[in-house]
């Protein structure tokens, strides 16, 4: 007991030191950002990044970048012409947690003329951006690592270069990502480390008015990172230190502000390697079709999607799988009542080796935004995903979240959308224009008592250990010191339930992180 108290005291000292280091780094980064170029202007059609954009913001993901094109001033000598009515922007963001797409190109990117450097005024065709994030993490009784304590520094650097307009319809995009880990207590893994990674490298054929005025057609070939549908199956990771990427083709009809849009993909998932160049997994193909209908976005935005994950393994120890996922995602405001909603349903079928796949997942959320200066929003929501009842019945019933972003199920980043009953309460506040706060209460139950839990991989095939995994409280604050620098602090606590207690050690767990992000 004395030894454990000594270890915990030393851990608290390391936390205090690490927080001071992160704050010091953040102050330096903020100073560099403030002394550099003036704050970038948000390109037309693209909003600055936010934790959760409100439902009435303009498009946050101009799919092809055309929405970001700077408009030239009219020629003063030209005869006056009647102004054309502006194309209606049908886009409305969901207020649900983690379903809104990240901007393309990324939010840290701007055209080169915006940097204010002498002689660059005409470089509206060149896109450039650089972003760095340093995050300290401390975990007490980490269920991922046999309840050991852990601390580490995670560093992620992103650089983007894009060429647009000047060679239209031909465009290019390249994104470099370097993800590193320092002072860690456990071996490196590809969720934290991926050095010298080419995250994106694609060529694009872009036709601005191919489908009508301001209704583009885009065809991209190469390595890409993107979000599709509700991000519960295909997502570009944000919180995790490394990012999903795919090699292949993406066809986009329309853009985010149009009343309809179609995305079609045929890609190979990229296998992340610690220090070697990442490579596509040629034994796995992901095919996807997403149709988005926004004509009724004042009431409902409707996404319909169909994904196929085809795995044809050469290693006989691995199963050949064909997973079909078909579903719909509907969200929107409820008139002017202050209420909003977000619901989805996803059905999976196919085969896992000799087993027949039969699984599903669903999400339902109802929120209310109060009429107050702090813009408080209170939401009640629930996630559900099936688990496997019997490993010997030739039925694969555990839902497969594929390439999703798992932070929507807790900042511990342990739980995935599988074998899960997960009711939540969420409170959002914005007490100041530079400060955003999110608080969560989450509960976890097993959908099937006989299937495994993500918390430590615990399992009781008899189903006699109960189904209550536990509860968490997550608190996260973001402070935007200037347009180019942001500080994020978060704390989460896990209260183990009866299932954890009946299947092994059951300690409370803590997770603390401090992150500083700067955009150059």
Commentary on this structure:
With 520 residues, the protein is mainly beta. It has one domain: Porin, CATH 2.40.160. The chain has 2 helices and 21 strands. The chain has helices at residues 2-35, 498-502; strands at 110-111, 126-142, 148-163, 170-182, 194-207, 217-224, 246-253, 260-271, 279-280, 284-293, 301-311, 321-333, 339-352, 355-369, 377-385, 395-396, 420-432, 435-445, 468-482, 485-496, 509-519. The model is unreliable at 1-9 and 18-81 (pLDDT under 50).
CATH hierarchy: architecture: Beta Barrel
Q: What percentage of residues falls in helices of 4 or more residues?
A: under 10%
> Biggest sheet, open or closed, and with what strands and sense?
18 strands, antiparallel, barrel
Alpha-carbon distance between the two ends: 48 Å
What structural category arises from helix and sheet content?
Answer: mainly beta
Measured by DSSP, the beta-strand proportion falls in 35-45%
**What overall geometry do the principal axes of the alpha carbons give?**
globular
Order of helices and strands: HEEEEEEEEEEEEEEEEEEEEHE
CATH class: Mainly Beta
Summarize model confidence as the mean pLDDT: 87
- Radius of gyration from CA coordinates: 24 Å
CATH-derived topology: Porin
Total discrete domains = 1
Helix tally equals: 2
Total beta strands: 21
Can you give me a brief rundown of this structure?
The protein has 520 residues and is mainly β. It is built from 2 helices and 21 strands.
């Amino acid at each position: 007991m004395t030894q454990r108290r000594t270890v915990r005291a030393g851990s608290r000292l390391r936390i205090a030191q690490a927080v001071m280091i992160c704050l010091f780094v953040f102050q330096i980064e903020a100073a560099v950002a403030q002394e550099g170029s003036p704050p970038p202007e948000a390109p037309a059609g693209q909003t600055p990044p936010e934790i959760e954009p409100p439902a009435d913001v303009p498009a946050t993901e101009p799919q092809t970048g055309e929405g970001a094109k700077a408009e030239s001033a009219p020629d003063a000598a030209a005869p006056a012409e009647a102004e054309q009515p502006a194309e209606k922007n049908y886009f409305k963001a969901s207020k649900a947690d983690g379903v809104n797409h990240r901007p393309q190109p990324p939010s840290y990117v701007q055209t080169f003329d915006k940097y204010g450097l002498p002689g660059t005024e005409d470089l509206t065709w060149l896109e450039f951006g650089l972003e760095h994030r340093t995050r300290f993490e401390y975990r007490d009784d980490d269920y991922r690592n046999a309840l050991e304590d852990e601390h580490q520094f995670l560093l992620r650097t992103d650089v983007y270069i894009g060429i647009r307009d000047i060679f239209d319809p031909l465009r290019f995009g390249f994104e470099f990502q370097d993800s590193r880990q320092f002072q860690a207590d456990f071996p490196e893994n590809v969720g934290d480390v991926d050095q010298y990674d080419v995250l994106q490298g694609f060529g694009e054929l872009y036709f601005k008015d191919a489908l009508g005025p301001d209704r583009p057609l885009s065809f991209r070939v190469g390595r890409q990172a993107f979000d599709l549908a509700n991000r519960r199956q295909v997502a570009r990771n944000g919180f995790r230190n490394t990012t999903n990427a795919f090699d292949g083709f993406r066809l986009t009809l329309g853009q985010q502000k149009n009343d309809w849009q179609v995305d079609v993909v045929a890609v190979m998932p990229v296998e992340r390697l610690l220090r070697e160049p990442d490579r596509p997994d040629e034994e796995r193909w992901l095919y996807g079709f997403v149709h988005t209908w926004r004509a009724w976005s004042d009431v409902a935005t409707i996404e319909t999607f169909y994904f196929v994950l085809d795995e044809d393994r050469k290693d006989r120890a691995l199963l050949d799988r064909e997973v079909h996922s078909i579903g719909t995602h509907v969200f929107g405001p409820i008139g002017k009542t202050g209420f909003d909603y977000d619901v989805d349903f996803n059905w999976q079928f196919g085969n896992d080796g000799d087993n027949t796949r039969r699984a599903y997942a669903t999400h339902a959320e109802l929120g209310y935004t109060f009429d107050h200066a702090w813009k408080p929003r209170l939401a009640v929501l629930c996630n559900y995903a099936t688990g496997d009842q019997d490993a010997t019945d030739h039925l694969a019933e555990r839902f497969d979240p594929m390439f999703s972003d798992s932070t929507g199920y807790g900042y511990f980043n342990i739980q995935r959308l599988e074998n899960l009953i997960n009711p939540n309460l969420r409170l959002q506040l914005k007490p100041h224009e530079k400060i955003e706060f999110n608080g969560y209460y989450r509960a976890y139950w097993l959908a099937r008592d006989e299937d495994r839990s993500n918390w430590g991989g615990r399992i009781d095939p008899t189903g006699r250990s109960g189904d209550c995994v536990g509860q968490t409280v997550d608190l996260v604050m973001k402070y935007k010191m200037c347009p180019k620098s942001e500080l994020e602090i978060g704390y989460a606590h896990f209260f183990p339930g009866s299932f954890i207690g009946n299947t092994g050690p059951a300690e409370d767990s803590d997770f603390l992180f401090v992150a500083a992000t700067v955009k150059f």
